[in-house]
Amino acid sequence: MNLGPHAAFIVTAYVAAIAIVAGLIGWIVLDRRQLSRILDDFEAQGISRRSTRADGDKW
Amino acid sequence: MSLIDLANPSRFLALTARALPWLAAATVLAFAIGITQVYFAPDDYQQGATVKIMFLHVPAAWLGIFAWIVMSGAALGTLVWRHPLADVAAKAAAPIGAAFTLMCLVTGSLWGRPMWGTYWVWDARLTSVLVLFLMYLGVIALWRTIDDPAQAARAAAVLTLVGAINIPIIKFSVDWWNTLHQPASVLRLGGSTIHPAILAPLIVMAVAFTLLFVTLHLAAMRNEIMRRRVRTLMMLQAGARTGP
Fold this sequence. Notes:
The complex is a heterodimer of chains A (59) and B (244). Chain A is an all-alpha fold and 59 residues long. Helix content of chain A is 71%, strand content 0%. Chain A contains two helices and no strands. The longest helix of chain A has 38 residues, at 7-44. With 244 residues, chain B is an all-alpha fold. Chain B is built from eight helices and no strands. Chain B has helices at residues 3-6, 9-40, 54-81, 84-116, 124-145, 149-163, 166-176, 196-242. In chain B, α4 packs antiparallel against α5 (124-145), α4 crosses α6 (149-163) and α5 runs antiparallel to α6 (149-163). Chain B is globular, with a radius of gyration of 20 Å. Chain B starts with a helix and ends with a helix. Chains A and B meet through α1 of A and α3, α4 and α8 of B.
């Protein structure tokens, strides 16, 4: 594929797009891991929503 | 199953846990088809190969706007029905919308330099998209500023609905003002002005980016629900420590 005289602009645009999407995916995955770890810690301490709160916490 | 069942956070988590792998697979498949079509798409008769930037720039622009429309719908859910899942949807969409708007601005600049001779010009379309990006940052900052999620949701909802005024401004800026940016060429009365050989990959890439948005948004909503559970547990823990 010949990208012509403006190849650097085209390649940079695709690299930037990949970096932004990778950043979004990485942020969501790392956030999930961190939150799961905290919830597991609470579980290990015996603190859970259902057992400690019988009035139907919506979260 | 009614809509109200889906709006239950636990039901939402169960449903999205099943849907997300399929959505992720559909996203990868759509991108595989889209990128292949982009690779084989012909160069534009005027712009040459730089037209390939359009396959990123246009879907990113659409999703930057679409995410704000999603947030506006969720803002109505927050203000009218006070539903916490609407808060979650709005909060989760903001960083994703900001990312797509940033992608639109960056790819647009990189397309503009070889085609217009400049990375940036303060014309109505570019400026209104920059305003959209700044509004995303404002909403994200507002969410982070207020500790109470319900209070933050109401403040963010008002800001989101006020900011929605910018959406028609972005869309019609190229018609209302004399801009360097080209007028609408895909979604316009009288049909698209783009050749089918270039329009087809553009549509496939738009579908792929939309699937990516839906996948990331649902995953981010799941994270936000978990974050609120963590917050609830922390408050329960703090309450147990201090005693009655």
